[in-house]
Amino acid sequence: MDPDRHANPPRGEGADEDRSADTPGGALQPASFLAALEEHRAQFGATHSLAVLVIRLDRFAHACDTIGPNRVHALRAQVKSRVASVAAMPVAMHWLGPADLGLACLLPDADAEADGAHHVRDLSQLIASALTRPYHVDGFEVFLSCSIGGAVDQPDTGVERHLQLAFDAMLQVNKRGGDGIHTAIQPATPHLATLLAALPGAIGRGEMSLQLQPRALLSSGVITAYTVRLRWQHPVLGRVAPQDFMPAVETLGLINEIGGWTLQQLLQLICETASIGPMQFTLLATSSQLQADDTICMLRRAIDACGLPPGQICVEVPVGIVPDSHVTTEKAQRLRDGGIGIALADFTDDATSRRALTLTRPDMVMLDARHLGSAHLHPDLSARLQAACVWAKAQGTTVCAKGLETQAQLDIIRGWGCDSMQGYLLAQPFPATWLAQTHMAVAERARRLLAP
Fold first, then answer.
1. Out of 3.40.1190.20, 3.30.70.270, 3.30.70.260, 1.10.443.10, which CATH number does the structure's domain 3-186 have?
2. 406-430, pLDDT tens digit by residue?
3. What is the largest CA-CA distance in the chain?
4. Which of these, 227, 267, 138, lies nearest to 427 by C-alpha position?
5. pTM of the entire predicted model
6. How far apart, in Å, do the first and last CA atoms of the chain sit?
7. 213 contacts 428 by C-beta, under 8 angstroms
């Protein structure tokens, strides 16, 4: 059973809060919101369809930690105002939880469910764009992203079902890291087919870009590295998450083309921003890249051609894709001989992680600390991450905690002895082209947040 379905809204956070309890079965039952949907059906019947959306404000807890509890109502009021400004004639808009906003609004006349899905995605894109602009609350500047799930209300289905579909669609986005859109009625196979058709030529059309997220030392607050992530913005599909399109990239055999383009863009960025000082850049490797000799050769040639110092480029490898083979050790050694660093991501206290560390002897392991301090945290997760940190450091490997969003999480991983941190608490990802103008501000933020 998904614990996210049982998060009850707090008391006293504004008159628009829904106070209804969940049903024993776990389905959402916000009475006022569902009543508005039923009223729409009674008034309009099937002549006007509704978009039913659930919007989760990603990192809302972090924002509240930043501005303080007394300003939360003002922030949420700004969120509702922005949603109302782009949603046509909202039939209902209610908070379903501390960071979950339910919305139902009229759609243009649609002849088929597929048309309704298209309108829901368009509306979701408009809302997402509105909600990602900076918020200003009593002198504080706050940035939010959102996970949006949508469904089209159909008269032959209960309104509770549509709300649950939208909520489940939102959770699919949120559990992949947030900052995305999913419609419950969108079939998976056509979506994959669309990706396969749209990916060829995406680079030539200027749809691909790089984003950076900084990493800082806990001991000094100095920014030492940036993690590089690939982003795809399609004119029709909108923002497509890497976890959604990378399998299609591998299916189409485009991994070398996109990998080569990413490396070329990064090398150009390193040259253009040399004035900010020596900085490591970490690239995420896929399973096929890790196993291909072409990737290692391409990286080594690039480093030699640009005269980069050892370790300036690092390859981040998820523990789950490290082959349990002596070949892994040989390829890891070739990377190190070529001056390429290795980071093991998603490291934890299990046999798979320990075996991967033994095979690759990485420069760093990365712990996923996103859910530390959460009410839904599995009781063993914190202890396992701490044990993983202690064991990795005993092997002489540095440890980075990523996904930090709150001061409380930072205090926890400091106590474990982690060496560095990365996450929205420090800075959200930003376009790589902003690095020269953004680095000093990020560095100052890191000093204030982390310096002794």
1. 3.30.70.270
2. 888 899 999 999 999 999 888 888 8
3. 72
4. 227
5. 0.64
6. 43
7. yes
